[in-house]
Amino acid sequence: MAALDSTGELLSYLEKWERNISTGQTPVPMLIKLAEIVEKETEVYLKMDPDPFDDRHPIRADPNCGLGHVLKALFKNETFMNKVLQSYIVSSSSSTELSTTACRLLLDILPGLEVSVIFQETEGLVDKLFQWAEFAEDPLKSYATGLLAAAMELQDVATNFRDQNAHLVPIMLQRLHKLKRAPPIETEKAAPRTATPSSSACRPFAHLNNEKPPPDAKHNSDSDAESTALCSMSPPPVKQQTPNCNSLDRSPIVKSMARSGSISPRQIDSVRNSVECGQQELEKALGKSVKSVKSVKPPPVVSESSSGSWAEMQPYVIGHLTMWPLTPVTEQMLILRYLTPMGEYQELLSFVFEHRALDLVLHYVDLSHNSDVRLAFEALKYLASLLCHKKFAIEFINASGVQVLLHVVRPSFAATGVSLCLYYLAFCEDAMEKVCLLPEHTLKDLVSYALWLLECSHESGRCHATMFFGASFAFSAVLQLFDQQDGLRKLLNVMSMLHVLTADEPAGLGDDEMFAARQTIRHVSNALRKYYEAHLVLKVEQMKRSSMRLQGVSLPPSLPSYKAIQVSQEQVQAFTESLLESMPLRMRWQPVDQLLSLGGVTMLLQVLGLMLEWSPYCGRSETFVSIMNLLSICAVVTKVQLQLCEPIKMPGKEVTTCGVSTLLGLSEGLVISDTDVQRAALGVIIICVCGPQSRLGGSVGRFTGGSVKRRPSMRNGEDVRSKMWNAVRGNNGIMTLISQMMLSTPISDADALRALACKALTGLSRSDIVKQIVSKLPLFSSGHLQRLMKEPVLHDKRQYHLQFCEYARQLIERVTGKPLTTGPDVSLSQFNKLDVVAQTCITYNDKELLQLIYQHLQNKGLTETAHTLQTEVCLFSRSSYVSFASPPALSPASRLARAVVNSPVRSGLAKNPVAATSPSTSLSSGASSLRNCTTQGLPFSASAGFSANGAQTGPGPEPIRLNLATSRHASSSVASSIPAASSSVQRPATLSRSRQRAFVQKDGNFQSQSPVLKQRQTLLDQPSSSKVTLDSIVTEYLRKQHAMCKIPMVVCPPFSLMEPHHCPEPRLRSSVPHNVTARISHKRVYPPHGGFEGSRLDRKYIYSRFRPLRVYRDTDDGSFFTCCAFSACEQFLVLGTDSGDLKLYNFSTATEAGSYVCHSSALTSCQPSSDGRLMLTSSYWRRPLSALWSMGDIFEIRHSFEDDQHVEFSHLGDRIIGTKEEMARIYDTNTGQKIVTLYNQDYANSYAKNQACFSPSDDLVLNDGVLWDVRTSRFIHKFDKFNPDISGRFHPMGLEIVINSEIWDLRTFHLLHTVSALDQCQVVFNHAGDVIYGVIHEDEEVDMNEEMLKSPFGSSFRTFDASDYSNIATIDVKKNIYDICTDKSDFHIAVIENQIGKTGLSDESLSICRLYEVGRTREEDDDQEDEEEEEDEEGVDEEEDEDQDISLFLDDDEGGEIELVNTDDDSDFSLDLDDDESISDDSAADDDNEENSDD
């Protein structure tokens, strides 16, 4: 009501002002009245103790305040405001009274003005104010100074008037000294400085303190006098009396001392329980404390628990502001306001020292000399601006300025100004060192004062105190005092008490409250990060010194407590990993334990979850990084890791989320695209999953006797790691990390993100389950990881790429179990192949080598040397070389005997005369030695081979390229040389990274190679000795030949130097021919499919050919087909339209047989029941989304499913499963009642195109990538997510699940393999279950308005063999595919092909459903357009007569035999069993081998 009265009064004066202006009267009286109204409301507003640093409009700070409404009503009158500025101030030259009143009014209404508009757009205003501030008389001079103070807050204005400021600042400082020396002038509105006993006794609410005021003011109780002494400026003498035992607790002195801690409760109890409660007992108990009360000097310490009245406390809490009549206090306040923005400028600092500004500030801050707390507040603001300069800050500390700050009354208006001074002081490192060197009690009081600001100050004071601690935690002296005074709890309370975390509906908060809360969270999280970084450095230093002490090493000097701890983010990460490695499992770390006990980890995770939903704002990324860096430090403690795995309830929501899920979402960068946030999130994950294999104290055994059963707990590090690995994997961590490893943007940070993601995946791969899954992914199976190791994304970030290569090498070695010594282009299958080659024992015939030497000598003209060699070794002559090189065909037994006799083993045995006497003995001994050689398990090294005598050779996968490396000679005995060779192979050491190169010359071409692999390859290429042996050259050559084999064998017979080597490929006697005609002829010999894998080859032949049979068109104009299905009787084709209609077409005649209205939006699916009596339909939008229809004589709805986006029958047809986003619901088909709901938020994968389905036995359900037991509604298993869209289907065989390109084993839940061709394909199985139709999803995103007109698939579909998931064919229809379905006989498929523009269908012929015949092809010279016209003009019989192709189909009734049908007797066929392409005619050529080249 008071606000309305003031507003009405102001409006009435404005009306009078308008009338006076029209009559030419002076406006001064009206301006004075308006100023008085504003000043009255300002005083009321200040009594509400608003935040002194809140510069918002008063009505935004408090919508109910009268000042805000008055200012709002005043600003609506633009004529009045323009008149005040232009006419009364800028243009006023004669009337001083008018200018003074206008400046007073303008100064009063500044809290609601847009200052930048007033002072930057009003020409001449600032110049006028400078003139008045220097030369005018009071009060105009002071009012102009106050207005200049507001103008100088604008940096542009201050810069433009730099010279005027340099002239005016020393003048203002001189005025302050003059006013300080002047005696104080008491005004009527000045606050009473003392409280008389009578006023103290008769103050309101005195009875609440259990005091009995006497009837006369002259008979006041002594306890009242003592209480008054604590809160008055001039306390009267304290009279002591003998207290009563019962009234001791009610004594104000005892109360105040008990609150302050100067007297303990035990002392009070001793006095209470004493027999004589006289003067001696009281003096003995209180002792020195009573004397301290007597010696209290003004100003008093007004605490939050003070029992003084508001009249006594008001001067020290909010003070007074008097604009008229102008007082010296107000003059000084206005001058200090002007000097505050000037204090930050370096060029004006000389005037500060010259005119002793520090003495002025200390005088005003000391309330024993200055009685107005608002003047002290303005002085503190000026002090804060001066503390930006290091020199002034040092002078301030040397002048005992910190002690003066600590004597500022709290709670008070000035205490908030102290918080700003502490904040500025903390950011000067040299100044903080001086502060830390202050006496211990002073530093303790400083920390205590700052902690009080955290709890009881204004919101700005809490923020300044938080930032003060954030900057001062680097000093261990402050850190220790902070912990001693329970500072962590108080700091966490600043965040935990925010409405955004405590309110049930935080979204109902205003914009200003949300902004303030976000900034508070930002400052607190940054302070907490600095707190734990400091503790981390101290903890690592402590453990390091402890370790050095145990080792007897001399300890280096520790960092003094007054010195700042300087660490970078890289050092923090290194310290964290070091602490994680060395910290025992059960070791307690007090700062982290306290954070857990206070619920800090849970609160931080809640903040992370809430911030993901907040709109972007300033400091959002910084807050994310601070919180996650803090969590990465705390995660060294296992309890924090376990806390990250637990579900966290979000404020104001019903759902829960997991901390690991939040971290993975942030690392993916989808919600907030900031690389610093992604790196911080990956850092937390690395600490959690990359812990050491064993930690001290992680395997402590405990004995428990009897039959006592205890609840299982995490007793060792392995349990914690396993739970952490499962949590990361359960929240799709593998997919997230792999996606980060594939990043190429942003180019400046991609290498760093790759390295961190690879490091996390390397730690996660220590889990056997993760290792098995990763080994089957394209990252390994297709060699994607090795290709990423070739070169960095940005060459300037090469150091991060080197880290990535090192982590990738560790990952490959961990997954494969073998050291990586190959090039970067080797896939996992090639890696295993090279392993086999490396384990093969290479032997050859020595005489063949000597024969080649003999031929070489002959060619070089060294005939005598060649003849000598021939004579000694008994070699063949040149004429017999041909017969030697091409020996006659021998039986297998003869070839084996010859190979053994001529082997080096045989020649070695011949040196033994005892063995040589018996050929049979020699043969058996040689064979035995050969078996021993080939069965030795050699260490794997793809770049090193082993000769017959065990010599080490060079690398071997490249075709016939000698890369030599020699080793020691061994004896000729193979059996004795193998161990020597094995022992000589060692893992190469790591070279310096600075010596690595990015490219290696390979086969004459430069090919990019990983620096880490180049480093290892360089070492392997270096010879172990200075000489190269001929044996190593030959062995290298033969191993190269062996590596070129398609399927190399470990055990091989001796190699021939005269003939190329190749290992035989496995082939069964009953292997089926690839040629279709030969395969058909083999069916009589090897029924039913012509041999091994005959059915697979038949499927490849049949399902790679599709012949268009007929076309179905919609007769309605402007509509198009969206889904299709064959009826149960296969006489009709059921088609859904975009208008929600369901149409039945005759299968043979392609005519419309019926049309039914089902939904009001486009149909997405339609499925008939197995008996043909029911039909399920689903639509895009408009409820009901799905429905069950009766297909009897009358087409009518049976049941509706309001929210289910997709429905389908079970295989028995007795149940229906519906899908609503991540939820699956099962209904009874007959009653439509819901049976069970399958959903758990903790296991949700959130696939975009989730469709729940039954298993072939109807016992299991796959929903959102999660397997459920239908009978018990129990969760069984959650499959890892590797794509965002496809949720998966059951294989008809019932043992596998197909989720996008991943094939999962339903029995072991292992990832069997991945099929890249199935990526983003909607899977449709044929009726037999042996062929998959894959319709490719398009990745392009569309708007909701275009979703109805856009195809969900591409323009092609694929066929796959369901037995091994090999790709059969890809058929491009050149139009958008909307749906595909198969009939029960698998002879036909129906495909909806639409071609729709942005405006919809322009021609009805663009939307068709085409029927294809499986296993037959159209004529070669027909194109697509001619075929569509022929289908409209000619009948089906004519097309079948003109067909000249071979039709192959499976006849289930005759045991699966394939029938060869030729519809044209005149066609000419040629059969050639030796030719791959054996079937040809004039109309179509058989290209079976070409289309099955992948087989």
Spatial order of strands in the largest sheet: 5-32-31-30
Rg result: 46 Å
The shape is globular
What's the pLDDT, averaged over the residues? 77
Which stretches are low in confidence, meaning pLDDT under 50 for 5 or more residues running? 187-203, 205-302, 699-714, 878-1013, 1339-1351, 1398-1404, 1432-1495
Number of strands: 36
* Class derived from helix and strand content: alpha+beta
What features would you describe in this structure?
The chain is of the alpha+beta class. It is built from 63 helices and 36 strands. The strands form eleven sheets. A four-stranded antiparallel beta sheet has the order 5-32-31-30, with helices on one face. Strands 6-7-8-9 form a four-stranded antiparallel beta sheet, with no helix packed on it. It is globular and about 125 Å long. The two termini are 90 Å apart.
Q: What are the SSEs and their pairings?
A:
Blueprint: H1 2-23, H2 28-47, H3 58-61, H4 66-75, H5 78-90, H6 96-108, H7 115-121, H8 125-135, H9 140-152, H10 155-160, H11 162-181, H12 197-201, H13 222-231, H14 252-260, H15 265-272, H16 279-286, H17 288-294, H18 310-317, H19 328-342, H20 349-354, H21 357-365, H22 373-386, H23 390-398, H24 401-406, H25 413-426, H26 429-436, H27 440-456, H28 459-472, H29 476-484, H30 487-496, H31 499-502, H32 511-551, H33 569-582, H34 590-597, H35 600-613, H36 620-634, H37 638-645, E1 647-649, E2 656-658, H38 659-668, H39 675-689, H40 717-730, H41 733-741, H42 750-764, H43 768-776, H44 778-781, H45 784-788, H46 798-816, H47 828-839, H48 846-859, H49 863-873, H50 881-885, H51 892-901, H52 904-910, H53 913-916, H54 919-934, H55 974-984, E3 999-1002, E4 1005-1008, H56 1011-1021, H57 1030-1043, H58 1076-1082, H59 1094-1102, E5 1106-1113, E6 1121-1126, E7 1132-1137, E8 1141-1146, E9 1152-1157, E10 1163-1168, E11 1174-1179, E12 1186-1191, E13 1195-1201, E14 1206-1209, E15 1215-1220, E16 1223-1228, E17 1234-1238, E18 1253-1254, E19 1260-1263, E20 1266-1269, E21 1274-1278, ...
Antiparallel strand pairs: 1-2, 3-4, 5-32, 6-7, 7-8, 8-9, 10-11, 11-12, 12-13, 14-15, 15-16, 16-17, 18-19, 19-20, 20-21, 22-23, 23-24, 24-25, 26-27, 27-28, 28-29, 30-31, 31-32, 33-36, 34-35
Helix pairs in contact: 1-2, 1-4, 2-4, 2-6, 5-6, 6-9, 8-9, 9-19, 11-19, 15-16, 19-22, 21-22, 22-25, 23-26, 25-28, 27-28, 28-32, 30-32, 32-33, 32-36, 35-36, 36-39, 37-40, 38-39, 38-41, 39-42, 41-42, 42-46, 48-49, 52-54
